[in-house]
Protein: Acyl-CoA thioesterase
Amino acid sequence: MARHLYSCPLRWSDMDAFGHVNNVVFLRYLEEARIDFMFRLAPGDGSPSFSGGSVVARHEIDYVRPLVHRHEPVTVESWVTKIGAASLTIAYEVKDPDQVYVRASTVVVPYDLAAGRPRRITAEEKFFLQQYLAEEPAAA
Structure:
């Protein structure tokens, strides 16, 4: 299984009054990594995959430890944990080589903007996503 790595710079404006990255800013980091994954890495030159739009149906975030301002970026590592007929789940870790700051997941629904409704995942999109699909853990 492949994992997508996105380097995310920390901005001074990301900090809150307590001197660490504000909890809401982590959503922006996840969004930047997700957009990079779904649109810049979409298969094929000129492929319409994922270009019709998508909406977030759910976010789940576990804040593991505070992240304070520094000049080095953090890495947002992402992979797919579920592919349904009309949704997918992306998991993330916001981290550096020494520690994890956030573990999160997002349920994304492909959306037909012209029709104003959700749509199914295409065969091309599914093929692309399967490269990043995590193996199911073995039953104990």
User: Anything to note?
Assistant: The mean pLDDT is 89. Residues 4-130 form a domain with the Thiol Ester Dehydrase; Chain A fold (CATH 3.10.129.10).
